[in-house]
Amino acid sequence: MIITVLFRWFTINGYLVFLFASLLPTPVDAGDSPNLVFILADDMGYGDIQAYHPKSKIPTPNLNRLAHEGMRFTDAHAPSAVCTPTRYGLLTGRYCWRSRLKRGVLNGYSDHLIQEDRLTLPRFLKGHGYHTGVVGKWHLGLDFHRLSNHEDIDYTQAVRWGPNDFGFEYSYIIPASLDFPPYVYLENQQVTGLPDKRQAKQPFPAYLREGPIGSDFVMEDCLDQLTDKAVGFLEQNSESENPFFLYMPLTAPHKPVLPHARFKGHTNLGPYGDFIVQCDAIVGRVLEALDALNLKGNTMVVFSSDNGSFMRRLNDSSVEDHVDDESAQAYRADRHTSNGPLRGTKGDVWEAGHRVPFLVRFPGSIKAGSACQQTICLTDYYATVAQLIDRDIPSAAGEDSFSFLSLLHAPETDHHRPPVIHHSGAGMFAIRDGRWKLVLGSGSGGREQPRGKAFEKPFALFDLKADLSEKVNLIESHSEVAELLERQFWRIHERGHSR
Known about the structure:
eleven-stranded mixed β-sheet; 9 helices; 499 residues; four-stranded antiparallel β-sheet
């Protein structure tokens, strides 16, 4: 196969040097390769979708449709309990804690996180004949043209090391979460409306930080704008001989909780419940577009979330944030609990932090209405797609990605995946292998008290098959299991890869 060598020039200490960027296969005939759509919600909990929580009081007919027409994974995990690291893991097939970001997230002004020479998933697919596009929340850093400090930016200049540099032919994004300035759209790395005013700080749940806002940016219209662009990408590529990959990272239901006026009052659960309804409607628009364009039969659609919900429960028309309401931790079937029966919340190493909904529809390949109970991680999407199109991942890419393609055809197949490493917002680790989960620290590593410290004992061991809510610590009675898991963790951690 012909190899194309890409170089980039940049400056270090005043010297102009070039960087070997990547080895990418030259585009080849994609043949009958399927189209790919990945919709990633922002902070949607395991219990927010009726297909996962039948007694949910929030209607999610379109997500239910995905589950009815495809497969529902019940043991899928984000590689992190917060957003930036999960996005890194999804697009690289590599745990983010192997990068320079060891805890927390980036902000809207952060420089790029993905290494310049990394073979990302969009680079990989583009090299194999795919048209690639991203529409939504980026949150992986952009190199704005800075004049002095982080807010003194020349917005007329295109950003460097954005989505187009990492393999996306088309991009329409916001820099980070919708509560992070600068509040601007960027199309193919160029700001579409120069900031001409400032957004004032807003309290929870419509939480916003103060900062510059673009002339064409309206908070309540952001999701509609992104959905229009995503549907436009589908329309533009519907007649192409080449397949496409659309990555659609939503900005919701993450704060600011700002459902559009047409969705307000759709539930009795306040703005968060209404916001979930709006997210579901966005999925509906994408599915309707695929139907109208006759793309359904050859398109694999995946829906998931970057981590668990920041809400613990919604009760009548009240909204209760996870930080101040310890009583909301208990699961009850008579109220909506965003993280279902799981312990903790977004940011935690507990299951609510990283166990996420994961729905896959691929007509003709996946049995409608099926479910899979085996453990997967969002980093595994890279290897799954590679196997789906019958292409090999180079050894230096997708270090923590394992194909689950066989599970789509036979969910009961014995899936020999090495242990999954979980990572909390504050840098706490856990390792999961089969029924066993070992937390390598003394607390949640996130928001639930006690937060504890990484690698500080006592550790916690849970049998998730018998105790999904992580109530009983078995570290003393099953010390040999804990010791084995700890050795496995350090082996995966230290060698730089698990694949």
